[in-house]
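Async update (no meeting this week)

Hi team, since we skipped the sync, here's where things stand on the single-chain job. The sequence we agreed to prioritize is pasted below, unchanged from the tracker. I ran it this morning and attached the output directly underneath so nobody has to dig for it. Comments welcome in thread, and please keep replies under the output.
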Amino acid sequence: MKKFTASLFVIVAMIAVFAVTTGSASAAPAEAGKVGPYDGVFNGTLYADNGSKAPITLNLTHRGNVVDGTVFVGKGLTVDAGICGAGAIPETAVTASGKTSTKNPKYLSASSDFEVSGVAVTIDLESVVQGNKLSTEAKIDLPWLCGGDPTLTGTLYRA
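Output:
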């Protein structure tokens, strides 16, 4: 169980954090050179529903409906999944790429399914950019036996 817990939390939390840029929304091809609302550097704080938090920086380019960038997460975030355990998320930087909807490029809704040690995990993400503010919420849908579905939220501001 200890191995499962460590793997689960590192992977789940990182995917939830990075889902801002890796989520796949259904979208038609967009004008490749047009700058979108996710373009820029956003700084803020990422919060877990257990009260832990960590600084986060997104360095993004948004052209057409394609978002590329780097996500930097600082120390301090832990994810708690009930009886499946808890884990600290290490300070890290990861590159990611994804797409927004061409109908509403300020809004991103995405879902990602994957397995960790044979256990199905789903991440559901909602994100919106309003002016210089980026708000996001990632719900981590774990198996019922864990006893809870952690949520990560972030509020970031364009630098």
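Quick observations from my side:
Confidence is low (pLDDT under 50) at residues 1-11, 19-28.
DSSP finds one helix and ten strands in the chain.
Reply here if anything looks off.
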